[in-house]
Amino acid sequence: MDGIRRRNIIRRLYNWVLRWANSRYSIPALFTLAFAESSCFPIPPDVLLIALCVSKPARALLYSAITTIGSVLGGICGYFIGMKVWEYTSNFFFTYIPGFTPESFNHVKSLYNDNAFLAVFVSGFTPIPYKVFTIAAGVCKISFIVFIISSVLGRGLRFFIVGGLIKIFGEPVKKFINKYFNLLTILFTILLIAGFLILKFVINSP
From its phi and psi, is residue 126 left (phi > 0), alpha (psi between -120 and 50) or beta? Predict the structure, then answer.
């Protein structure tokens, strides 16, 4: 029952996010979504980014830049949550925020001992939950400069691929995404879940 309820909540959040695409506040909404998703919000900004790029391909790179900036700034916020207030907020994240478990969080902290740059970059580019890495980075006090550079590269590459494809190929890509938008969002959700599963597999591997 809890699983069904959680899926229904996520579905409603997706629909709510998509409604911002037709609003005059779509750009502030895109920035805010990208910012919040980097520390606590469960819906990835790609959903709104794709919708806006489809509606105005000429502005696709602008939307990608806004998403990247919002996401990196949100990551910085997550970094300072981890550095300054994690001991007071950890129960909230472990209880209510998807992707946060003591096991996954401890494993992410161990990854920073191996290669902090690569860990942040991969989490920023792939469906693996970036928010876990931003807060863990602050808890581990990894180099702030390394965190910023790897976040900009990982997040920027991810979002500019979306905007760039629509900008370069224009109408054909726009028609394709318009036709298969629901399928694409479902596939992205599957990828997001796969990110959690990959993280779990890595945690449990010897």
Answer: beta
Q: Which residues, at least 6 apart from 203, have a Cβ–Cβ distance to it below 8 Å?
A: 103, 104, 107
- Which residue type occupies 41? F
Chain segment 86-138, per-residue pLDDT in tens: 989 989 888 888 778 888 888 888 888 778 888 888 788 766 778 889 999 99
CA distance linking residue 180 with residue 151, whole number of Å: 30
For residue 20, how far is the Cα from the chain centroid? 18
Q: Model pTM?
A: 0.77
Q: Count of CB atoms within 10 A of residue 106's CB?
A: 11
Q: CA dist 152 to 2, 17, 70, 102, Å? A: 36, 24, 11, 27
